[in-house]
What we know:
The chain has helices at residues 14-28, 49-63, 82-95, 110-125, 167-175, 190-204, and strands spanning 5-9, 33-37, 67-70, 99-103, 142-146, 159-162, 210-214. By secondary structure, it is α/β, with parallel strands linked by helices. It has a single domain, classed as 3-Layer(aba) Sandwich (Rossmann fold), CATH 3.40.50.10320. Helix 3 crosses helix 4.
Amino acid sequence: MGLDALVIAPHPDDAELGMGGTICRMLDDGLVVGVLDLTDGEPTPRGSVEIRAHETAEATAALGLPWREQLGLPNRRLRATLKARASLANVIRRERPRWLFAPYWVDAHPDHVAATRLTEAARFWAKLTKCELTGAPFHPERVFYYSCVHLRVVRMPAFVVDVSSTWDRKWRSLGCYASQLPTEGVRPTVLDRVDAAGAWWGSTINTARGEPFFVREPIGLRGFRDLF
Length: 228
């Protein structure tokens, strides 16, 4: 049985920052969720390959994720090349996720934009026959897009997930990334902005905390009882 959801993150910590609360909500609902980090995130000013690997393992445990892998693509030089597309398509064919999650397609970070282009291309390639990809053809039903911290423009999302009940687990996972998310220094810190954004998006749906998501394709409803 494959994954219900595969969250594709340009760097370790992007999945937690953008949708850590939603990941926990899905896990609580019995869904099988995995995170694929495209790069190891290095180099960074305060990190190292070893530090980032330790922090990622700690954050994975904090979320309770059963599946996490790294694709090994180059940080700061991420590109939606044919080789990278094949590598990601092979993972999709192996894990067979129903849904893909990727960064919102407009972003200040070039790696994030490249990750989204790569995700969309690999989704298409994963269904191809008569090709050199491994495994059987597979096409995820949908791609949803989560918000990253580099974009400081407010976009209207397609929907907001209530993550009030899982915000503390998201926060614990973010606390694992001490090299990337320091709590000291000039305010507001990244964590200050994440907390403020969570409260704001929660307020838009009358809850304590929320995480926004975007789509390119229409979302179907069986009836208005699906809404709250």
